[in-house]
Amino acid sequence: MAARLEAATKQFGTVLLISGSLKKIMSDEMQKCCREIDTVTVKGSIKPVRLFTIDIDTDNLEPSKDPLLNKRLRDKKTLRD
Fold first, then answer.
1. CA distance readout (Å), 75 to 13, 20, 38
2. Of 2, 11, 14, 62, which sees the most CB atoms within 10 A?
3. What range defines the domain where residue 73 resides?
4. Domain count within the chain
5. CB 26: neighbour CB atoms within 10 A?
6. Helices in 1-81 by DSSP H: which ranges?
């Protein structure tokens, strides 16, 4: 599921996609930051999955020590600009 959500970020033009199942277990404060994108049926499943993104300002986040993650964020930023 994680790989499918990551791949779908390109289709939806988002930095991050999460499932409705993950959103349900988040704190109320974090759920308020979530925005519903779509409901889809992913390959290999018959149950529809609600997709959300988290509306945060990625330009003001502290850099990660993970160089791969930093590259992905830079690439997404370049696509948006």
1. 12, 26, 23
2. 14
3. 2-80
4. 1
5. 15
6. 2-12, 20-24, 28-31, 67-80
